[in-house]
Here is the input.
Amino acid sequence: MTPLARLQQWFAARGWKPLPFQRQAWRHYLAGESGLIHTPTGSGKTLAAFGGPLLEALADSGERASKDKGRKRTARPLRVVWITPLRALAADTTRALGDVAADLGLSWAVAQRTGDASARDKRLARGGKLDVLVTTPESLSLLLSYPDSAPMFAALRCVVVDEWHELMGSKRGIQTQLALARLRRLSPGMRTWGLSATLGNLDEACRALLPPGTPPPVLSAARPRPMTLETLLPADVVRFPWSGHLGLSQLAGVLERLFAVRTTLLFTNTRAHAELWHQALASVWPEDAGTLALHHGSLGPAVRQQAEAGLRDASLRCVVATSSLDLGVDFPSVDQVIQIGSPKGVARLLQRAGRARHRPGETGHVLCVPTHALELAEYAATRTSIAEGVVETRRPPRLPLDVLAQHCVTVALGGGFDDAALLAEVRTTDAFAALDDTTWKRVLDFIVRGGDALEHYPEYRRVVRDDDGMYRVHDRVAALRHRLSIGTIASDGNIAVKFLRGGGLGAVEEAFLSRLRPGDRFRFAGRLLELVRLQDMTAYVRLVKQGDGVVPRWMGGRMPLSSRLAAQVRTTLASDRTSPEMRALQPLLAVQARVSHVPAPDVLLVEVVRRRDGQHVFVFPFAGRRAHEGLAALLAWRLGQRQPNTFSLSANDLGFMLSPQLPLSLDVGQLRGLLTPENLVEDLTHGANLGELARRQFRGIARVAGLLPPSLPGRTPRSLRQLQASSGLLFDVLSRHDPDHLLLGLARREALEEDLQVAWIQTLLVGLMDHEIVLARPESLTPLAFPLWADGMRAQLSTEAWQVRVKRAAEQLERRHGR
DNA sequence: GACCTGCTGCGGTTTG
Here is the structure.
C-alpha cells in the first residue's frame, strides 16, 4: 500500500476524509517546500502539518524495510521538531502526535521537552533517541545551549511552529526566528511549516517565519465558521452608566443566560474584574458552589488545573476567566462564551468566541455584556469588522539586540561559533536581515568584554574568543547563569500566596501585598483570605469564612482598543443606525448631537468645557488608548512651551482630556498648530519624559541580555525593588560612562516605538492635517467626554470623594438632559 | 442609582 493510501485509510477508519487544504499541505511538503497554514477555526491543522512528515516517514520505512530485512534497527535521527508557545499544548500535542504515528505503524518515540516534562522525556531529548520532539521556544534554545545537540538535529526534516500568530509579535518570536536559523544551518534540508490563526498580515507572518526565497504557499482551511455577535442590551440605555468598566448591573441578565445552557466561559478583561465577577456570581449562585470556578494568570497551577479539569469533564457550569483561557487545550463541553466589557480587538473576540463548542454546521456565537453605554458602539463596530474580514496585524520587533546577545551566548555555549558564519546565519532571519557590521561587532564586544563601562566586572565577560577564533563559554558559573536566564519573558516582583499548611494559591503583586498588614483581609482566587505573615516573598494566609476584603489590582498590560477597531467605532457612530446596539444608543447620540457633535470620519471633534472644577479640553481622534496618552503628553508639552501651565491628563480608547490649571483660549487655527507632525519625536521625548520610559524598558532588556543575575532555583526570589535597584544602577552607570551603549539605544527605541507609538502618532497627525476640526463648546460634559472626566477625577481624588463627585455630576446631567 | 481599566507566556539541576 502506498503511504498516501495508508494515511487515507487512517482517516477513513475515523469516518473522515482528508480536507483539501490538508492534501495541499502534504503535496507541498513532499515537494520539499516550506509554508504557512492559516486556519480560522483551528480544526484539522495538526494533521495538515504532521501529515507530510508521516507520509515521508512511511515511504522511508518501506524502503528501509526491504533493504534492512532481518537486520537490527540502527539509531534513528530526530525528524520533526514541533514548537508551541504553551506547555499545556505541548503535553496534548505529544499525546496526539504519538497516537497517530503509532496507529500508522511507525514505532516512533514522541516526547516533549519543556520545563515540566518528565525526566524520561528530558533524557530522551538530550540523548538523541527521539523521532518527534515537542517543545517551547525557550526549551529549544536550552537544547541549543548544549554542545551535544548539534548532531541530534543533523537530519531534521521539518519544524512546525504552532500558534505562530501568538509568537510572531513578541521577542519570543524573535527567539524562535534565531533558533530556526540555527536549525536550518544544522540541517540544510529542513522545511518550516507555520500554523496561524486569522491575522491581518499573513505575508509578514511568512517572512518572519520561513527561510528567504520564493513566495511560500499559504494554505487556508476551508471557509471561516460563521460567527454571530449578540449584545445583552441594557433595559434602558438612557439610564445605563456612561462610564465604568465592571458591569455588575448586568448580573441578573448574565445569570439568566448562564443557566440557559450547561457550560459557559465568561471572559473579563482584567484579573481584578474576574475576581469581582466571580465573587458577585458566587453570592447569588443557586446551585452547588463547586460548579463555579475562576481562572487567571496569577492563580497557581493547581487552582487553574482544577478549573480546566472541570471544563474537560463538564462538571463546571461556569468559569470566569481572563486571557489565560484564550488559548490552549480545547474544551469541547463549553456551550457558550460571554464577553464582559470591551472586546478591545477583533482578533481577541474571534479567539474567545472560538472557545465555544464546535458543532458541524453550527455558527459560532458570543454574547457581549456592556459595562458602559459607548461599548455598544464597540460591539457594533466589532461585528462590522468581522463581517468585512478586518483583523488586527501583529508586527514583529525589529533588531532586538538583547535577544541577539542572548542567542549568541547560547550558541557559544552550545559548541561555539565562528564570527562570520554566525553573522551570516543571523542575517537570514527577518528580524536581523538589516544588521550592520558595526552593530554586530558591538554585540560581540558586549558578550565578550561587557562593553566599555562594564569591562571591569568579570561576571559580564561571559564569552571567550579562543585561539582558533571560535567564541565559546568556558566558565561553569557563567554557563549555569545563562541557562537559568534563557527566555524573553520577564515577570518579577510577585509574592507567592500560600496557606499556612502548604497549598499555594498563586501570586500577587508585591506593591499590593506590601501595603497590607497581618490580619488584613483580601480577596484572591475566589476566596476571602487573611494575611498571617509576609516572609521571604511569600504571603502566608488563612481562609476566612465571612466578611469583606479588597481585591488586588495587578499591574500588567494596558489592553488598549486596537487602532483598527477604534477607527471602525467612529465610522459606526457616524453611520450605523440599524444594528441593535446602535439603535439602543440613539437616545444618547441624540444628546451628543444636541449639545456638541457626533464624530465622523475625516472630522476631528474637540470639546472645550468650563466647569466649576476648571476648564477641560476633550479631543477625540479615535486612535486607541496608547496613542492618546502620547498625544495628550505631546499637546500638554507644546501648550506649556507657549505659556507656562500645568495640566492633568486622562486618556481612553476614543480620546483624551487636558485639564489646564490656567484656562486656555483655543481656536481651530491654534489647534492645527498644536497637532502638527513637525518635531514630533523631539516634542514627545520631552513631553512624555522619554528618559523615564526608557529606564523602565531597560529592566526587561537588561534581563534578556543577561545583565541581571537570575534568581537561583530554590532560593528566595529577588523582590521587585531589588531588581529595579540593580537595573536602575546599571542604567545610570551606562548612561554616564557609555551613553552610546547599544542596550541604552534599544531601550530608547522601544520606549518610543512601543510605549509612545511614535510611528502611529506620526501617521495620525499627518492624517489629521486634512481633517476638518470641529470645535464645540458645550455647556456640560457630553456623553463622549464624561468617561474621560470621571477618569481624570479618579486620578486626583480619594475613592469616596470620587464617588460623590461622579454621582453629583451624573445627577446634574440627568436634570439638564431632562431624564 | 449610577465605582471599582493594568492580559498572557517560559525557564536549571545531572556524576548516584
User: Anything to note?
Assistant: The two ends of chain A are 78 Å apart (CA to CA). Residues 276 and 611 of chain A are 34 Å apart (CA to CA). Confidence is low (pLDDT under 50) at residues 69-73 of chain A. The first strand of chain A starts at residue 35 and ends at 38.
